[in-house]
Structures are given as structure tokens and as C-alpha cells.
Design brief:
Blueprint (H helix, E strand, L loop, with lengths): L32 H27 L3 E7 L5 H12 L5 E7 L4 H8 L4 E5 L8 H11 L6 E5 L16 E7 L6 H4 L1 H5 L3 E5 L11 H11 L4 E4 L8 H15 L1
Parallel strand pairs: 1-4, 1-5, 2-3, 2-4, 5-6, 6-7
The protein binds guanosine-5'-triphosphate and magnesium ion.
Guanosine-5'-triphosphate binds next to helix 2.
Amino acid sequence: MCATCGCGAESGAPGHDHDHHHDHDHHHDRPPIETVLLEQQVLAKNDLLAAGIRARLDDGGVTALNLMSSPGAGKTTLLERTIADLGSTIPVAVIEGDQETRLDAERIGAAGCPVVQVNTGAGCHLDAQMMRDALAVLEPGAGTLLFVENVGNLVCPALFDLGEHAKVVIVSTPEGADKPLKYPHIFAVADLVIVNKVDLLPYVDFDLESCSHHAKSVNPDSELIALSATTGEGLDEWYRWIARRRSVSR
Ligand SMILES: Nc1nc2c(ncn2[C@@H]2O[C@H](COP(=O)(O)OP(=O)(O)OP(=O)(O)O)[C@@H](O)[C@H]2O)c(=O)[nH]1
Ligand SMILES: [Mg+2]
């Protein structure tokens, strides 16, 4: 199991090289403190790499947004819709993170957008090294709005800075309004919480006000937008939020 995020990935698993040169715990005589220090080192190394990526994106005039959610909350659907609506006026590019397959990259490519797929194997999140490798292939030009679709998971992606300018957490109405309370770490680092699938509100037990209240209780600075990536309801507010982020990072 990966000691950094506890995700179950083996040390050295494809896409999950956290520099695991340690042996694991009780089989050896190492004091537990060493594991803690190693975790700190892995995250510190990631943060350093991420800071370099952010500086290069700033220099290149690229605004990067990291989309995170549980599997199936609607990240790719929202991206397809956003590319269709903004792609003719803004250069958009996407880095797709999934454990396996190129399915999401194919959907984004079909929407007419440059895309790189990163497969993390047993890993449960993207990290700054993967982001750097993907950027070397993608080479986004000045003014690009770069979306990163993280691996579907509300836990580990919270830990890893990718050098993005903002983190967006999507929760969809069938998942329940309690998600900010149950997965507080990811909501604590979110700049924006999107409640997706509001078209299903008549059919599911989801209280938008409680979700908003829970999100604010975990992170008073986060904003919240309710929308439907399929019907288009609420998308205008999402596009206004993107425009504000682009003007801030420029
Ligand atoms: N009713 C409804 N369904 C939606 C909406 N957005 C996405 N879906 C559906 O939800 C399912 C999952 O959507 P995806 O966009 O693939 O979700 P994802 O977050 O990218 O999933 P992973 O990449 O596997 O983590 C698909 O069947 C979508 O059609 C929405 O606003 N309303
Ligand atoms: Mg997806």
C-alpha cells in the first residue's frame, strides 16, 4: 500500500512512483516516525515541483483548473459541454487522469480539443510529476484554458498540488448532500464547489441548501455553483467564474 496517500497502490506501481525506497513498517525495526517523515518528504517534493509548474504556466499565460470528484459525478460531461460552448473563442486543452483506458480522452478529442491521457495504474490521483510529463506533450500555448480531470476519487487528489491555479470539486445530486462533511479534506482545498445534475433534484433526496451549508462549514472561502452539465442550467455562472479566474491569473 502507498504510505503517502494510503490508496492501495504498490510501491513502484505504474504512475505511482512516490520514491518509495522504504520498506513497510512492522516487518522491519523502523520506528513509525520515519514513515511520517517520508510522507512529508514526498509531499514536499510534489509541492516544489508544483510550484515550478505554476510559475511556468504563469509565464506562458496558461490558466489551469483541476477538476476533482467521485467517479461519475460528471467531470467529463461538464468538460465536453464547456469545450462546445467556449472552445471557439478560447483555446482549451485537457489533461485526463484515469487509472485505465483512454475513454475520457477519446470523448474530449471528439469534442475537438487537444488532450493527453495519463493512466495512473493502481494510483488513485494525479501528482505534479504526471502533470509535468503531460504538459511536455501537450505544450499549451499562451492564453490556453487548461483543464485537468483528476482520477475519480474524493480522497487522495486533495493532497497533491498539480501547479494548477484553482481546484474545483464536483459533487452530483445522487451522491447526497453530506459529502462535504464526509470528505472534508478535498472540500477544504476547493476554490469552487459545483453541484452537478440539478436536473435530477425532483427524483433524488438532495438538499441543496444543506450541501451549501456543509461546504461553507468546511471551507468558508469556497464558492458554490449548482448546474446541470446535460441540460445546461447554471452553466452561465460557471463560465463567468472561469472568466474571473482567467483574468486573475493573467
Ligand atoms: N442527469 C444528469 N446526468 C449527468 C449529468 N452530468 C453527467 N451525467 C451523467 O453521469 C454519468 C457520468 O458522467 P461522466 O461525465 O462520465 O462522469 P466523470 O466524473 O467524468 O466520471 P469518471 O471520469 O469515471 O470519474 C454519465 O452517464 C453522464 O451522462 C447531469 O448534469 N445530469
Ligand atoms: Mg471522466
